Amino acid sequence: MKKSTFISLIIVILLLGGILLYNSVNSIIEKGGDIGEYNEFTENSGEENFQGIDPNHPEGELEEVGDGAPNDPDEVKTFIITGENYKFLVNGAENPDITVKEGDRVHIEFKSTGGFHDWSLDEFDAATQKVSEGESSSVDFIATSTGTFQYYCSVGNHRDQGMKGNLIVE
Fold first, then answer.
1. If we measure between CA atoms, which residue out of 98, 96, 93 comes closest to residue 64?
2. Which of 34, 82, 124, 145 is the most exposed place for a label (fewest CB within 10 A)?
3. b/e string for 110-137 if b means 16 or more Cβ within 10 A?
4. What is the mean predicted confidence (pLDDT) over 109-137?
5. Taking all residues of the chain, what is their mean pLDDT, rounded to a whole number?
6. Residue 61 belongs to what domain range?
């Protein structure tokens, strides 16, 4: 086989592989997937999806949003989490522990600020959609048992690369 024919064949194979990969990623994004009954996908990728972020909030502090009543059954604990290359961030804190009380209703607002990611927590069957950079998704669940549970990104080997943290239910 001539060298030019071989090089042409390699280029065609690489182009076809790239097209197939691009189409499969877009298909996953468009279809979402079956990730639990509590999933709420937000298609609007604008900043308005994260209302309530205080840009002056001290970095490294994890803050619950609610009325402050202890274990109020009507209160929802909301956490705004961003995902980027192999880490989750909450107000600048990397892969922070998230603490709630048993019986709390929890709302996670997740936004990818770099790459293709999601937020998953197996013990409560909670996961957001897998989203691309600039997109967001949310999930709601009830913390029904006490303990320390690992949340993570289920995309590829992101969990093994350190994209994980702990949900502590007291």
1. 98
2. 34
3. bbbeebbbbbbbebbebbbbbbeeebbb
4. 96
5. 78
6. 36-169
